[in-house]
Design brief:
SAM domain-containing protein, SAM, SAM_domain-containing_protein, Aveugle-like_SAM_dom, mainly alpha
């Protein structure tokens, strides 16, 4: 029975543990994201992201021109990477909106 409760406590910890906010990502976190979400282009461009010290804060600010200036000249590759960056931004924005709603609801709860 002790084992079951420890398993349940581990599960609850897992549920409440959230991934690190994109804005706090290190260069290594960005490399991991690039490998996972842009795997077709990772071997071609990981060094460009490294040379430009792209952290999470920089990643969400990148646009098509930035990618071009970084040396990603193939339009198809740029568009694919840009699409993944936009998805990441959207996910980060959704998390932030949910946090704001939770805080708003918490502070306005039957005070």
């Amino acid at each position: 029975m002790v084992e079951d409760s420890s398993l349940n406590s581990n599960k609850s910890k897992t549920k409440t543990t959230r991934p690190k906010a994109v804005y706090l990502w290190t260069e290594a976190d960005v490399q991991k994201w690039l490998r996972r979400h842009c795997s077709d282009y990772y071997n071609l461009y990981w060094e460009r992201f490294h040379e430009h010290d792209i952290t999470g804060r920089a990643l969400v600010r990148i646009n098509d021109n930035t990618l071009l200036r970084m040396g990603i000249t193939n339009k198809e590759h740029r568009e694919a990477i840009w699409r993944e960056i936009l998805k990441l931004r959207l996910k980060a924005d959704i998390v932030e909106i949910r946090d704001l709603e939770r805080r708003h609801n918490y502070f306005n709860y039957d005070l």
